[in-house]
Amino acid sequence: MRLISVALALLLLLIQYPLWLGKGGWLRVGELEKEVAAAQEKNEGLRQRNAKLASEVNDLKDGTGAVEERARFELSMIKQNEIYVQILGKDQAKPATADAKP
């Protein structure tokens, strides 16, 4: 009788091994759930970035305000009959003028 009990206990342990430590076991499922959560978080960040870029594309296609803003700040362009004034801080060097003599 004791032999049968030991054999059944051993069989029970052998059946439980794949459930806990096997390829599709509970420990592996926990690891995969963490990976899925990280991937979903990354995807949400990418969705927000894509929405922002899509909004910017629509602004550039539909309105002239965004184009004008980019031209002003990135290309330093000004409108006709407009005066450009740049204020330098104390630690910034003065720009060289064309008529300055060394």
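The record above closes out task 2.4. Task 2.5 opens with a second protein, given below.
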Amino acid sequence: MDKFNDIGIDNKLDWDRIEKLMRIGMFAACMVLVGDVLIGYGMHDSSKTGMEWFLSAYLQLSDTRMFWSAFLGFIGIPLEALCYFGVYRLIVPKSQKYAHLYRTGILGVLAFAGCGVHVPCLSTCFFYKYMNDAAPEIAVDAAVKFGKYFLLPGMIVFFLFWIIQHVAHIAAFTKGLTPYPKWCWIFCPAVGMAAVMLFKFLPESEVRNAITAAWISIGNLWMFVGLLVMAKKVKVGDR
């Protein structure tokens, strides 16, 4: 017990601070959602196939949209990650084991999600757009190589930490190691993300592409909103 590093966070429930983190997290998720919509709103060229088809949607984007999408994610994603500590505070009084795992996931997301995934993703789109103007015959291969070198490593590391965070989140809630009812495990980002990806089964449209591009930010919004709404009821029963 004494060996657990609480990084200066009290392991007692502080509902005011938890709810404040949830509200800030909602704001951050909305910020990132706007950035995701900016990059996702568009259509693919149906005359193309494979990676050329996938990347074709980004040829329509202005430099301004790419910049603001990258900037909003650069600021908003770390802010989302810091607000995950609201969930950490829910877990730590009853399970330092799962709190420790969850915190490990937070730190990985904080370190890699914004600068390691989101910004390099926009950089790859930007690179492809201008490569297509300069040398269209090699643009796709060059963009894929660029992505493998500068985007893929961050994606792999990010998702490893993301999985750790979600395993800890779901396990802590389903085992009753938070003040919430066990069924509230559904308020984890993965559930919201999975629901959003069902839109992929709809015919392609600008709106569908924008929504599915925002799958992670919508998943985070689902978590923050759901836990904040339920906190009102949980606090009453906790008295």
